[in-house]
């Protein structure tokens, strides 16, 4: 009978609050990469790879989004660098910068709302 009493008085603990500081730092590193020529983005993607899969589902989606942002951004910036010889690369570089800023802002917003970013698999924004 005492077992039933103990089972009826089970206290359900709320899950621990999730620390979103590291993903925010990664987004900030990506934004800083515009000025540093991509060096801080390299640090950010390494951090994202290390911490991917070690949190709740919505936070793991942010790490996945950050890894995809790095690789797709690398492709866009390399393509714009090659096309600078024909002068269209300058416009494409500016478009790539705007693309990066929009993705980082969307990521920041998702972190503040404690949800995964929208359209994680997209190549656009």
TrEMBL record:
Keyword Membrane (UniProt): yes
Membrane topology: Multi-pass membrane protein
Main location as per UniProt: membrane
Compartments where located: Membrane
Isomerase in keyword set: no
InterPro entries assigned to the protein according to its UniProt record, in alphabetical order: MamF_MmsF
Top-level lineage group: Bacteria
Pfam families registered for this protein in UniProt: MamF_MmsF (PF09685)
Protein's name in the database: Transmembrane protein
């Amino acid at each position: 009978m005492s077992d039933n009493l103990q089972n009826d008085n089970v206290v359900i603990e709320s899950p621990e609050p999730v620390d979103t500081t590291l993903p925010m730092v990664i987004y900030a590193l990506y934004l800083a990469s515009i000025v540093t020529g991509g060096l801080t983005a390299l640090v950010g993607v390494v951090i994202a790879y290390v911490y991917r899969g070690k949190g709740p589902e919505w936070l793991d989606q942010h790490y996945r989004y950050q890894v995809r942002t790095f690789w797709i951004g690398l492709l866009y910036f390399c393509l714009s660098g090659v096309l600078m010889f024909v002068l269209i690369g300058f416009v494409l570089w500016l478009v790539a910068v705007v693309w990066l800023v929009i993705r980082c802002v969307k990521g920041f917003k998702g972190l503040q709302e404690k949800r995964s970013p929208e359209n994680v698999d997209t190549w656009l924004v």
